[in-house]
Design goal:
The chain has a single domain, classed as Distorted Sandwich (Beta-galactosidase, Chain A, domain 5). Helices cover 5% and strands 48% of the residues. It contains 2 helices and 21 strands. Strand 1 and strand 2 form a beta hairpin. The N and C termini lie far apart (36 Å). Bound molecules: 6-O-phosphono-beta-D-glucopyranose. The site of 6-O-phosphono-beta-D-glucopyranose (BG6) has 9 residues, from strand 19. The site of 6-O-phosphono-beta-D-glucopyranose has 9 residues, from strand 19.
């Protein structure tokens, strides 16, 4: 069985989803790749895919019960709906992940993740449903860790953070209020913004491309670029890759979401090429 599936909207618009992590690894819009994928990324299931849209669940960041960013991005997902063209022309597919011995050994809860990827004309929507299928409540954090491809980070600006409070992992500070309308990435940046992009979304712009990221039920946004030294220190990252990417990550991460037995959280992001 192939390890990835492709959504074809037209000859030059497509998206590819790897079953390892349900990671969207490519989104080509009008012949142009919109997502960054490291040329050194492992694609064989031995390590989380470095690029595209890895899915972080049930824990964002270092985790006492298992690997950083949880197990969803390092699990093999099942396709439950093959790519289908809808009447409006959009193409969708649905993947699922459920608990098994391996996940319960780390995190002893029963869950169902249902991930719907929809490719439209000039847009890509990724919608996740997290369902508690067990009989006890659990809590988690979740994040769509999108690596945007940019032609040159020096000419990239990201908006949608003005006035939001953030914690800065590089500076070791918390509750800083963002004073810039547009952020220019010119160093290692690793910040968790609370209530960011609401309701206007984030505009990720370069002289060539403008992408609008909007989110539903994902109140936080992580902004990350490893810059020179951290890029070089990662075995699966191109040394100069940081010049062509910025991660703008839609998440529910600054607080843990509680789901009672039988409850579902539905959250999504949409990226539109303007
Ligand atoms: C970001 C985190 O979301 O992911 C960073 O804020 C982290 O702290 C980055 O370095 C990459 O994580 P990983 O596990 O894929 O190397």
């Amino acid at each position: 069985m192939a390890n990835s599936i492709t959504l074809d909207w037209s000859e030059n618009c497509s998206a590819t989803i790897h079953l390892y992590g349900a990671t969207v690894t490519s989104w080509i819009n009008n012949g142009k790749e919109q997502l960054f994928l490291s040329s050194k990324s492992k694609m064989d299931g031995s390590k989380a895919i470095r690029g595209g849209i890895p899915l972080v669940f049930p824990n964002f960041g270092p985790w006492e019960h298992g690997p950083q960013h949880g197990f969803a991005r390092i699990s093999w997902w099942k396709i439950i709906e093959q790519p289908t063209k809808m009447s409006n022309g959009d193409v969708t597919t649905v993947l699922q992940l459920t608990d098994d011995d391996k996940t319960r050994n780390m995190w002893n809860h029963q869950f169902l993740l249902t991930y719907k990827v929809t490719l439209g004309e000039n847009n890509l929507t990724t919608k996740l449903e997290v369902t508690n299928t067990g009989s006890e409540q659990f809590d988690f954090t979740v994040l769509l860790h999108t690596y945007f491809r940019v032609s040159d980070i020096n000419s990239c600006k990201v908006s949608g953070f003005l006035g939001c409070n953030y914690s800065d992992k590089v500076e070791g500070t918390d509750n800083v209020s963002e004073a810039s309308k547009e952020i220019v990435i010119d160093r290692n940046i690793d910040r968790v913004y609370r209530l960011a992009g609401q309701p206007d979304g984030h505009l990720i712009s370069t002289p060539e491309t403008k992408l609008m990221l909007t989110k539903i039920n994902l109140p936080d946004t992580v902004l990350w670029n490893p810059w020179t030294e951290k890029a070089a220190a990662m075995s699966d990252f191109d040394d100069l890759g940081y010049l062509n990417m910025v991660c703008v990550e839609s998440g529910y991460v600054s607080q843990r979401k509680i789901l009672h037995a039988g409850e579902t959280l539905t959250c999504s992001q949409n990226i539109t090429v303007l």
